[in-house]
Amino acid sequence: MFEGRLLQGSLLKKVLEAIKDLVTDTNFDCSETGIALQAMDSSHVALVSLLLKDTGFDHFRCDRNLALGINLQNMSKMLKCAGNDDIITLKAEDEGDTITFMFESPNQDKISDFEMKLMDIDSEHLGIPDTDYQAIVTMPSAEFQRIVRDLSSIGDTAVIGVTKEGISFSTGGDIGKANIVCRQNTNVDKEEDQTTVEIHEPVSLTFALRYLNSFTKATALSPQVTLSLSKELPIVVEYKIEKMGFLRFYLAPKIEE
Amino acid sequence: MSSQKSLGDFFQLR
């Protein structure tokens, strides 16, 4: 059987809110090392990769590898019934066709069990090679969210450029153009307010803002976001999940024909 | 004109 008890249940609620509009159905791959998920959006332009390590759970047991096929909208409906401070336990039998979500209130005076039907999903996994990216930028996640949202009101695509000075976001549309530069900034009081640029080569790529906007639904998971770029490769937008792992989004670029 | 690539243009199905 599989069982995982997560003291900070709100993390799971946040993960679901971040991915449920991008991906419809996906397998949660459970093994003794944790829970992993990889899924593409229906157009195969964006991909979600989630890792929740066993060590981040208060209790974790997985007797044999399980692929739990889950409709994310339905799981989100169930998790919305958990309080933000609740402890959430996931449970599934090896041969079962359901998953149980147990919610415990912080002072243990309310225990809820929600059972959800699982589905059979043929998952398509992409092999993503380890890559030395040409540019890696870490910046406040709320700042990234704001920039992407602001640019979305002006254009459909953004050119993201990284030089050793910083990262720039540019767009254009019927009403005009916009260009935002965030410079490397390591002299701030709080580490989470820093913008750091690690660069081997300047890079500039074009992406659809609609997807970048969708990724920023993960902002609540982490105060910082890391953008990894290489020429003619999908961008990686990563939100680290404290003590547990990460939520990563990959987005294929637009390329001049 | 730039065209939207799909992830399959970069990564292999496994």
Question: Could you walk me through the main structural features you see in this protein, from its secondary elements to its overall organization?
Answer:
The complex is a heterodimer of chains A (257) and B (14). Chain A is mainly β. Helix content of chain A is 14%, strand content 47%. Chain A has a nine-stranded antiparallel beta sheet with strand order 6-2-3-4-19-18-17-11-15. In chain A, strands 5-1-7-8-9 form a five-stranded antiparallel beta sheet, covered by helices on one side. A four-stranded antiparallel beta sheet of chain A has the order 14-13-12-16. The longest helix of chain A has 12 residues, at 141-152. In chain B, 0% of the residues lie in helices and 36% in strands. Chain B has no helices and two strands.
Keywords:
heterodimer, A: 257 residues, mainly beta, 9-stranded antiparallel beta sheet, 14% helix, B: 14 residues, rod-shaped
